[in-house]
Specification:
By secondary structure, the protein is mainly α. The chain is built from 6 helices and no strands.
Length: 133
């Protein structure tokens, strides 16, 4: 950007408040600097007003953006809950289908923990091969 080109109208600057400085003090200082620049360059800067926001407001778009983000996160959580319920239902149906096999293993002398361990290992081996959407 050339030093003589003063047509750029959008500039985002990130900073951190000094220890002991308040948000209002920073806002007043930014407005003072903007007034000095407007005096120095009245043709290009007379109508420009700086805004000062917290980082959270800048990322979420203020209060309404934060509410929208919360609704979106709720929708994502709901979809994740449905996916978990579907997987649990499939595992339950699979275990109901295998109840005879498990009963035979138990009658042959396999202990409860051995059967549980086998089922957990099978689920652990199947889980990485499931498609992730």
């Amino acid at each position: 950007m050339s030093e003589t080109n003063r047509q750029t109208r959008n500039l985002n600057v990130f900073g951190r408040l000094a220890d002991g400085a308040s948000f209002e003090e920073a806002r007043a200082e930014i407005q003072t600097i903007a007034a000095q620049i407007a005096q120095e360059y009245p043709d290009t800067n007379k109508d420009l007003k700086p805004t000062l926001q917290t980082l959270k407001e800048g990322h979420t778009g203020g209060r309404q953006g934060a509410a929208t983000l919360a609704v979106l996160m709720g929708a994502v959580a709901f979809v994740l809950l449905i996916a978990c319920a579907n997987v649990a239902s499939l595992l339950l149906a699979r275990s109901a289908h295998r109840s005879r096999e498990i009963a035979i293993r138990a009658s042959l002398g396999a202990g409860r923990w051995r059967i549980i361990r086998q089922l957990l290992i099978e689920c652990g081996l199947i889980a990485p091969s499931l498609p992730v959407f």
